[in-house]
Amino acid sequence: MIEFKGVNKWFGKLHVLNHIDLKVQKGEVLVVCGPSGSGKSTLIRCINKLEPIQKGEIIVNGMSVHDSATNLTKLRTEIGFVFQQFYLYPHMTALQNITLAPVNVKKIAKAEAEKIGREKLDRVGLAEKADAYPAQLSGGQQQRVAIARGLAMSPEIMLFDEPTSALDPEMIGEVLDVMVSLASEGITMCVVTHEMGFAKKVADRVLFMDEGKIIETGKPADFFDHPQTERAADFISKILSH
Amino acid sequence: MLANFNFMVIFEYLPLFLSGLKSTFLISLVTLVLALITGIIACSMRISGIKTLQYPAIAYIEIMRSTPLLIQIYFLYFGLPSLGIVVPEIQTGIIALMLNSGAYIAEILRAGIKSVDQGQIEAGLSSGLNYVQRMRFIILPQALGVTVPPLLGQAIVMVKDTALLSLISVAELTRSGQTMTSERFMPAEAFLTVAFFYMCIYFCLKYLADWSQRKLIFREVY
Known about the structure:
The complex is a heterodimer of chains A (242) and B (222).
Chain A: E1 2-11, E2 14-24, E3 29-33, H1 40-47, E4 55-60, E5 63-64, H2 72-77, E6 79-82, H3 94-104, H4 110-123, H5 139-151, E7 157-161, H6 169-183, E8 188-192, H7 196-202, E9 205-210, E10 213-218, H8 220-225, H9 230-240
Parallel strand pairs in A: 3-8, 3-9, 6-7, 7-8
Antiparallel strand pairs in A: 1-2, 1-4, 4-5, 9-10
Chain B: H1 8-47, H2 51-66, H3 69-82, H4 89-114, H5 118-126, H6 131-161, H7 173-184, H8 187-215
């Protein structure tokens, strides 16, 4: 479903992705963790070409992401992206946020898109907030709307870039609950997160990055309880200690 | 002091002032529309990311913003005829004001567009919206909100700048004051009246600005 082949990326002199080889199977839930600046966000931002790469190739659903001949619109409609800061459109209601892309990109009729939108809002437990503006919603609610916005395009892949890092602690649970139920539906997910509970519960695989390299991958139980590398062990002890 | 003023003369000259006011109003209106179009074009070129469009736009904006308006007016007034282009004073004046205001408007629009969070643009990108769609649905509705007040501010500045056209003998409001001064030698009365009429235009525009802020602008609801 997603394949990285020798991907390299530099920000100026910083080698932010250092020869990444990775395969994510259809339906797999991959959790990416690592210290800040390790390249984990960049890794998933490359999957829908929010970032260019300098070397290598990424293949998603048979399409070469960074090939200029690839239909980027089609590729992006197959991938939902959830940002750390939600990035809802503040001048639109929750429902309008959700229906914007289905109506304009997928050319779905407005009434049909709204029906789908309301289903997705219901899906994230916010059916009654369809007409609320983002500023009227709590952080956790905004992030759930953002997830619904991604789901409304019926993507095969959902990417999450630290979806709970900007949230107050009491709101993390409601967002993770939605993500857990998504994972059980067989959607392919790549999640950058430090939420170990989430990783242990639903991840098929945990990938640990540092300094632009994949240091270690493994089943969540193995990774968290018996890390193979010193750096991973050090990282786990740090996130556990608070 | 006011007791020394002869306000009766003003009533005598009222038709002249009113015709000057009308000219100032019409020149401002035409210039504003043209300057908006100029500003939109210059701003679009400036943010296009295409160097052959970007550089001329930057040069234009910087030249207009770095030189006095009066010099620009004189340059067109004296310069164009020497190039063989003879344009009536009033058109020369409108072109000068249009080019000058257009540059400021281009920068106001650009600031509005830049004020929209890059993350929202990425959100649009990642859901497959193209450039025009991102502009139309995400950027412009929000940019409009923050640009309307400075645009009206620029309009107010521009209206007052039309006074400079009196120096190339355009028969506008300030020119009416000059005419009365030269005929009756009553500059205080003349320019006090002129100032009063500019204030009237100013307060109309200010009212419009306040109204637009209440009605047109998207505000986050808390």
